[in-house]
Amino acid sequence: MTPSPRLPFFVYGTLRPGEPHHDTLLRGRTLAEEPGRLRGALLYDGPGYPYAVEERGAGTVEGDLVTVRPEDYPDLLAALDRLEEYRPGDPRNLYERVAREVLRTGDGAFVRAWVYVAAPAVAARLRAHGTPLASGDWKARRASSPRPSPGAPRTS
């Protein structure tokens, strides 16, 4: 098996700063975390995490380009593959790890990066029955959630 190239990662969901997996997997293991955009994809709401579904010519997914410290790269690549339940060639994958051109918004440069996108069977189900997030931004989903009116009883 050929080793994977050491590309940065484009993260768009629970690995972004402030999200549940960022601190446990990325904190202290990165050289840079910069805003980025994946073009030609739609972001779908999942069961507590999102899926990027590639759609030629449609949509943009907001996220972050993460450059990993060289000494941490092999272990982090393996940890991210486990988190995303990705095994090369496994038809049961929920995600596929693919190399894509991602726009680094700070300087407008395109950077080749690893992106975990919905595997074909998952993508087909999402296209048929899923809910795309109009903003393309997982973090913005909270801001667009309805807020209780003042004085309304708390439910949690």
Radius of gyration: 16 Å
Number of helices: 3
Structural class: alpha+beta
Distance between the termini: 49 Å
Largest sheet properties: 5 strands, mixed, barrel
- Which strand order do you get reading across the main beta sheet? 1-5-2-6-7
Mean pLDDT: 88
Percent of residues in helical segments? 10-25%
Taken from the alpha-carbon principal axes, the silhouette is globular
SSE ordering: EHEEEEHEEH
Low-confidence stretches: 145-156
| Number of distinct beta strands | 7
Binned strand content: 25-35%
Briefly summarize what is shown:
By secondary structure, the protein is an alpha+beta fold. It contains three helices and seven strands; from the N terminus they run E-H-E-E-E-E-H-E-E-H.
Describe this structure as you would to a colleague.
The protein has 156 residues and is α+β, with helices and mostly antiparallel strands. The protein is built from three helices and seven strands. The chain has a five-stranded mixed β-barrel with strand order 1-5-2-6-7. A two-stranded antiparallel sheet has the order 3-4. The longest helix is centred in the middle third of the chain and has 11 residues, at 73-83. It is globular and about 40 Å long. The N and C termini lie far apart (49 Å).
